Amino acid sequence: MKKILLLCVFTVLAVSCGSLDQKSQTGLKGNWTISQVSYPGSDYIKVNSFNIADSKCFEGSSWKFVSNNNTGTIDISKPGCPSFSSPIVWTITKEGDFTLKITEGVKAKKVAQGYYLKMRNQTENSFQLVDRVDVGGNTVDVIYQFQKM
């Protein structure tokens, strides 16, 4: 019985790892900053990003991505915004889906809430994460433009 259970666990792990985009994940390794937050097709709107702060507070935030274990950190220290620092866990699928858990020092498996964004336009020095949010009954894209530090 233990062998069957162990085989099932390894099978699930092998299948789930096969759907990750290792090249994209490796490309994120290092320190990044959000240079701009924009809302294409919309004038200024107010969005609370990741249940932390107004989306504009993320401009200038520092992000560290560690690709060999899909962990990292996020730091916000923009004047006029709440200071925030937390470990993160993240992945990128072959379909360009970026998953993010802000763990705040808790093991990722104990964090029930996560965020699903789309990854776009990845180069060696930049990439975008796109969040689709509901604003007044309309779905709006929030684009986070990352630049390598």
Automatic annotation (TrEMBL):
Keyword Signal: yes
Keyword line: Signal
InterPro entries: Lipocalin-like (IPR024311)
Signal peptide: 1-21
Domain named Lipocalin-like: residues: 28-107
Superkingdom assignment: Bacteria
Classification via Pfam families: Lipocalin_4
Name of the molecule in the record: Lipocalin family protein
Native source organism of the sequence: Flavobacterium litorale
Lineage of the species this protein comes from: Bacteria, Pseudomonadati, Bacteroidota, Flavobacteriia, Flavobacteriales
